[in-house]
Amino acid sequence: MKELIMCYLGETALKGLNKSNFEARLMREVRKRTESCGNFKTYKAQSVFYVEPADEFADTDRAFDRVKKIFGFTHISKARIAEKDMDKICKLAPEYCARALAEAKTFKVAARRSDKEFPLGSLEISKEVGHWVLEAYPHLEVDVKKPDVTVMVEIRDKSAYVHTDKVKARGGVPVGTSGRGAIMLSGGIDSPVAAYMMAKRGMDIMSVHFASPPYTSERARGKVITLAEKLTEYTGDMNLFIVPFTEAQEYIRDNGVEDLFTILMRRSMLRITARIAEKYGAQAIVTGESLGQVASQTIGALAITDATVDMPIFRPCIGMDKIEISDIARNIDTFETSILPYEDCCTIFTPSHPKTKPKMSEILAAEEKMDMTKLARLEEKARSEREKIFIKLR
Ligand code: ATP
Ligand code: MG
Q1: Which atom of ligand 1 is nearest to the CA of 294?
Q2: How confident is the model at residue 152 (pLDDT cuts 50, 70, 90)?
Q3: Fewer beta carbons below 10 Å: N end or C end of the chain?
């Protein structure tokens, strides 16, 4: 009997969303993300998605790791299929759960019967399977409250399934059910986390990165590509746009007001990002900003950056401190890459005393002093010369 993967849908996740759209997107994600793991049959029955190997070459362990990172499931589990026959189930349970049972001191059997035609009730199933487990592992004791291992037996429409404890999955809603957003991806800790958080809410993610060679290096560029690759485990395949920002940035440095430089530059980056986002169907911009983290992330400064573009700007890290953001970064395995000490275009030319409480009028005056037609031309040039890299989940 073969092993398959059972993925449990979060009932609450379905609230307020179109159920069939939700499930269709989820199915598409499951199929796409397991594509490189071999041939699988993927289907849904009674709020569970099944990922079943279609031949002996299919790599179920690898598919399991993939599926664990798909948003939309609350739990997943590897399981063994059995015929709906008590003799077979009782023989299979101790055998399939052998490793976990051998290491445990206590256990319980939890049976669920969604096929009401099955002759035994869930309590009776649990008792009988429990009996067979004890026969095979006499060192075990039953503990229904806090067992080391739970042997689960599910009697469903088509078959019975046996497995041990389910693993907690990522929750969230399937990528693509909440529109598309353009993440401004720096090489830092915060922006990959912001991308992850919005993808978890169903956003289809595309990334925009600003590079200023020769001030920023090839290694800094490589770092961002690595981060995007790591993100695809959660977001699925994505486009990464690398914008050559040097000329626009130098123009602002040479013609802007020094202590407002960071904000003037951020406004320029936002204008470019919004244009790329529009062209590729994104309805929002996402950043890794967190309130009070640096001078450009005060309420006033954020309001001024907001006013730059018509698009909504989402900042999922806004209320988190660096420790909380770093914990998520470690959890999604971007942290070690993010802390590599390569320069970012935002950290070159930083003024020695950036204004923490800039006024909108000051910003507008500073922009008026520059030749905005010239800057717009440089921004347009940067936009059109951007490199588009399709980052595919490997
Ligand atoms: P992060 O880890 O996001 O880099 P940070 O503390 O370094 O955090 P800042 O450098 O102030 O933050 O940048 C704030 C936000 O601006 C980033 O989270 C990111 O969304 C965006 N950003 C900064 N630099 C770039 C860049 N080179 N390309 C694209 N977006 C950027
Ligand atoms: Mg940064």
Answers
A1: 11
A2: very high
A3: C
